[in-house]
Amino acid sequence: MTGEGVSPVSEPRRRVAPITRLRLGLEAVLGTLAALVLALLLGLVLTGVAARYLFSTGFIGLEELGIWLHVALIALGAPLSLGGALAMRLDVVVRRLPGWLARLAEGLADAFSLLAGLILLFGGSQIMRLLGGVSPTLGLPEWGRFALLGAGGGLMGLLLCLRRLEEGRSLTLLASLALAVALYLAIPELLIDTDLPPSLFLALIATLGLLVAAPLSHAFLAGAYGAIAFGSSLPEPAIVSTTVSSLSKFLLLAIPFFLLVGGLLTASGAANQLVRFAASLVGHRRAGLAQTTLLTSVLFSGASGSSVANAAFGAATFQPELVRHGTPPAQAGAIIAATSVLDNIIPPSIAFLILAAATNLSVGALLVDGAFAGAVMAACLAVAIHWTAGAHGAVPRASGAERLQAALAALPAIGLGVIVVLGIRMGLVTTTEAAALAALYTLGLALFARLSPRALLAVFRGSATEAAAIGLLIGTAGPFAFLLAVDDVAGLVSGAVTLLGGSALAVLLLSNLILLTVGLVLDIGAAILLLGPILLPAATGAGIDPILFGVILVVNLMIHGLTPPLGMLIYVVSGVTRVPPAALFRAVLPYLLALLVALTLLCAWALFV
């Protein structure tokens, strides 16, 4: 008995501060709406597939409506991703600063985020006043997409303010807000005469944002706005317009669908069947459990296409077992992070979707060559695990009957990736449609597993939030890519290649050097969007197969999921396992070397072809 009819659960609820209640309520509403928009997107694309194949017809405006809903998804989900791993914050510098300097850096990071919110909010408002006309297929005002993203910018700033007030940092918030407003008002009035290209200043401002741990997408927006003072040809409305235009590609709808596939596979238990099947094949070998981790990553890669999803799943599933069988915690985490690299290489791959959107390369061809590259990388990792993981974790050899039973149980998940790739490669469905069909299939698996409505909502919300973070990054990289094109950075790279002889070998050496350097401080998605269009013309000019070069580009950048200071896969594994990132960075070195050997082999193959 607790007295006065008050339950132990209700008492703590009374103590929740109003700001906390407001913040939680806003996040709950945004998360639910984002999940519903994702579900609506899925239904829309599936309706189009059914209409074409069952009734030999189509719906006018379906693709445009999908693009509008995608922008709405990003507007709703981006504020929720502020504190997640996909916010892409480079906090390694801030963590090493003394207390007062760290607090100063955090305030500057908030200023970047608030400035980004102001740019989206008021830039979208300006477009609403300037842009007329009505969409001929939807009958909606053309400024609607820009208004959606502008509202997302306002929500992003509001949620950040609520979090800082909840943390008791009102003075710091006030200073950050004052700085953001001052910069927003002052930058358009400044004109700094210089012969240096505006894209250079955008890069410098964005780098400053990265160093103080601002989200990468916010740093890009602030950098594009700051470049106005140095003669940028993109005023504020054009920055928002370019951001929205970069998002307005039907192909990009495949990203939230593939993220949803990974979430549903894990939640439904289908991913665990992949683990059982992998263990039945290689669990009895030297370092059997570690090899099982690798093979599971290969199989999981063929379904999800998300390295972050695989890293989180592997850390929760394999880390305790690897440690229990004698593998040191840091080495166990390093194996999980290294094998998760394969998800963005083995099809279906979200990284290849981003590359195709940036360069117009064939998605089907990239996926086929990605399968070959994934096999090379998996083989190199298997050798490294064999020699470094010792005899830890070997289990009794499975019988033929046990292997068959495990294979049959895993078949629904294994066949998923094959169906997707074949459907795209044979031209039966578009990439977006294949991703939607895969999501429908895994949704069926989840319903068959009797996943609760609450659990389903959590999966849809998580996938929508991750997709929004990736989508906002793709959009905000658009102004940077535009200025790089205006400043003819691609011509400068081609000139550098010519100075080195212009041969295929020279192009590959220079390209890999650039990618290995830039990948240290830039997220893979942003690096693909910025460097893909720059390096690809030089590669094709030197006679390198563009598809193979695209695969090499993605492989090179994915390796940086394991390198400091960004190392996103390391931080995801660290967040789940609580092993310090520094220990994981040291332990991953042998597997990093194995992946570099794989990259070298792929470059040699490109030269041979």
Describe the structure.
By secondary structure, this protein is mainly alpha-helical. Helix content is 74%, strand content 0%. Mean pLDDT is 84; it is low at 1-14.
Secondary-structure blueprint of this entry?
Elements: H1 10-14, H2 18-55, H3 62-77, H4 99-130, H5 144-166, H6 170-186, H7 198-211, H8 216-226, H9 236-247, H10 254-268, H11 270-282, H12 288-301, H13 307-317, H14 319-324, H15 329-340, H16 350-359, H17 363-388, H18 400-425, H19 431-448, H20 453-486, H21 489-499, H22 504-518, H23 524-541, H24 546-559, H25 568-577, H26 581-587, H27 589-608
Pick out its properties.
609 residues; mainly alpha
Structural class: mainly alpha
Query: How many strands appear in the DSSP assignment?
Result: 0
Number of helices: 27
* Count of structural domains: 2
Overall shape = globular
CA-CA gap between termini? 78 Å
Radius of gyration: 24 Å
Order of helices and strands: HHHHHHHHHHHHHHHHHHHHHHHHHHH
Approximately how much helix is present in the residues? Answer: over 70%
* Poorly predicted regions: 1-14
